[in-house]
Amino acid sequence: MALAIDLEIGDSGLTVGYWRISHIVADFPAGGGATIEVTLDGWLDANARAAGKLSVPGARRFVTVGIEDASDADGMSKAALYAAAKGHSIFEGAADV
Questions:
Q1: Cα(63)–Cα(79) distance, rounded to whole angstroms?
Q2: How many independent structural domains does the chain possess?
Q3: Cα(81)–Cα(88) distance, rounded to whole angstroms?
Q4: Using one digit for the tens of pLDDT, what is the confidence trace for 27-68?
Q5: 71-95, pLDDT tens digit by residue?
Q6: Domain containing 66: what range?
Q7: What does the DSSP assignment read for 64-85?
């Protein structure tokens, strides 16, 4: 699973179209709730990823997911994290691939 959306890397003119979760960090503060930071790395396209190419340098995006009930974070799937990422403006309009 990944997201497909063309995003320009800086002002380089280079467009990256395939985004895959590479890291997930969860914070469970003493006061309750949870915050999950999701890192998505970008490849030129799905074919480049399938061919074992490295992600594009500088093509890394971060999104944060806030959860009121920390127990909801325990069973959160990657699909749910991708759906949450699509809720952020940077990945608005992204397609699941």
A1: 14
A2: 1
A3: 11
A4: 888 888 888 999 999 999 999 999 999 999 889 999 988 877
A5: 776 677 889 899 999 999 999 999 9
A6: 3-96
A7: EEEESSTHHHHT--HHHHHHHH
